[in-house]
């Protein structure tokens, strides 16, 4: 059971990262490989607000989230909106370049050392059936579930959420219906960056943060999104938790060096057997 509890904490982070991938993909069709860097930046932002600016904890959260939101908008305007020829290869290359730039800038600003943030709530151990959870882990799980529910409701049932989906399904028809497609695309990057920032804020007191944390976190989140079905919110949740729980279990019986490889083995199996993911739907093509 302890492997399950450990997996739930990590799975909550994978789920948020996978949701970030889905938000941008559902709106623009782009797979943003820089998504993991916003998780790292969330940790850096909250560290800076708490320890350099000495803001109260609630103000620090708001400052970190607003910073990520603005950075997401700027990234979309500079790196994606201004490009002239938007082929898949060009866009993927740009997301990789953005990730490298964010990582390099973070190393220059915050250095190479691991940065520590104190727990946001009093650290206690909570006894669970067959294991224990810390209060920090419970906070990660609860906040992640709440964020996933709010986002799912927003994109399914609100006017603005439907506008996001319309932009992906048919941007020309959406534009003719009065939807500002460019603005929606910019907001998708901003929201995805904010979701990544939330994941970074939540996990930093548990794992600390360094400038290169975003690489593996982003790839694991991408694997979770593919596993569940790229573009599916429910798939992101299923994929995130399954991947993390399975990873936690196999790390207990295999050498620790295989832990990170496990996510990619799962990814390859899914791509071979179920290219659309376990909850993904095969798209019909008009001929």
Automatic annotation (TrEMBL):
GO terms for cellular component: plasma membrane. It holds the Pfam family BPD_transp_2. It comes from Deferribacter autotrophicus. One of its GO terms (molecular function) is transmembrane transporter activity. It is found in: Cell membrane. Its main location: membrane. It is a multi-pass membrane protein. This is Branched-chain amino acid ABC transporter permease.
